[in-house]
Amino acid sequence: MSALPEGLPLPFEVVTETEVDSRGRVSLGRAGAEPGGRYRVARNIDGVLLLTPVVSIPERELIVWEKPALAERIR
Question: How many domains is the chain partitioned into structurally?
Fold first, then answer.
């Protein structure tokens, strides 16, 4: 999955309408979200929320991504 440049207008399709519950949660199952999925949440000045799928890695593993030579040595 390639990252899109920040600030570009993206086409959106309305897939469902949902309601925030008393604990501040929103159900995303009908929108295609998978259980356990992680999302970066961005909010613009109009209050529009944009959820971007992300993959989180432990900080201790970050060095392997930052140093390709190290990744090759441990493969």
Answer: 1
Instruction: Please give the residue range of the domain that contains residue 45.
Output: 1-75
pLDDT, tens digit, 9 for 90 and up, residues 20-47? 999 999 999 988 899 999 999 999 999 9
Write the CA distances from 21 to 28, 67, 75, integer angstroms.
12, 43, 46
What is the model's pTM?
0.63
Q: Is the dihedral of CA 9, 15, 20, 25 positive or negative?
A: negative
* 3-state class (DSSP) for residue 52: strand
SS3 42: strand
